[in-house]
Write a structure and sequence with these properties.
Layout (H helix, E strand, L loop, with lengths): L5 H18 L6 H22 L8 H23 L4 H4 L4
Helix pairs in contact: 1-2, 1-3, 2-3
């Protein structure tokens, strides 16, 4: 996301945060929350995916996909740490 301007970064961050909030079962986190999760997700995705030798291409769509993967991982980890674990949201309780 370093190639984009600040406004584009905020818009992409909002889209990514909103999308990740819906993927990780739930709704969006509000405008500010979506932007924060989207931008942090872009950093996580930009750092993690190249280390896993995953390259999604270049351009805006690849940036959104990369950031969405990072944001979904971020939200998953947050929900895991908050308590309840993955079973309380995504699976049956044993």
């Amino acid at each position: 996301m370093a190639d984009h301007g600040i406004l584009a970064t905020l818009v992409i961050g909002f889209i990514v945060g909103w999308l990740a909030g819906h993927v990780v079962r739930g709704a969006g986190l509000g405008i500010v929350g979506d932007v924060i999760v989207g931008i942090l997700g872009a950093f996580i995705g930009g750092w993690l995916l190249p280390r896993l030798h995953i390259h999604l291409g270049s351009g805006t769509i690849a940036t959104i996909l990369n950031a969405t993967i990072g944001a979904v991982l971020l939200l998953f980890l947050i929900r895991l740490v908050q308590g309840g674990g993955w079973r309380s949201r995504w699976g049956p309780r044993w």
